[in-house]
Design a protein that fits this description.
Blueprint lengths: L33 E2 L2 E2 L11 H9 L5 H17 L6
Antiparallel strand pairs: 1-2
The structure holds iron/sulfur cluster (SF4) (2 copies).
Length: 87
């Protein structure tokens, strides 16, 4: 089963919460590549923006994929409940 993204774009509007995304931040926490709610460079987006590939590269030694998904869903829920976007 793959990660269920609701395509709300909120994670890409909160980059200021993690310094690893500083290079993408347009200044207010929103990614300079965000177009509407979608990634404008989706096919070439960096590894740190790829949920599946990031798991195998950075987190598979620390937690199961189920745990990883749960952590990510929790962040999605937080972002959606505090959303910055208009949609
Ligand atoms: S916050 Fe979650 S649901 Fe919304 S775009 Fe990001 S990954 Fe998808
Ligand atoms: S590159 Fe794309 S997926 Fe990554 S933060 Fe920017 S808009 Fe979001």
């Amino acid at each position: 089963m793959s990660f269920k993204c609701l395509k709300c774009g909120e994670c890409c509007r909160n980059l200021n919460l993690s310094k690893i995304y500083a290079d993408l931040d347009s200044g207010d926490g929103t990614c300079k590549y965000l177009t509407g709610n979608l990634c404008g460079i989706y096919d070439t987006r960096p590894l740190k923006c790829r949920i599946e590939e990031s798991y195998y590269t950075f987190f598979s030694n620390e937690m199961t994929k189920d745990e990883y998904y749960k952590k990510n869903y929790k962040m999605c829920e937080h972002f959606i409940n505090n959303k910055k976007g208009g949609i």
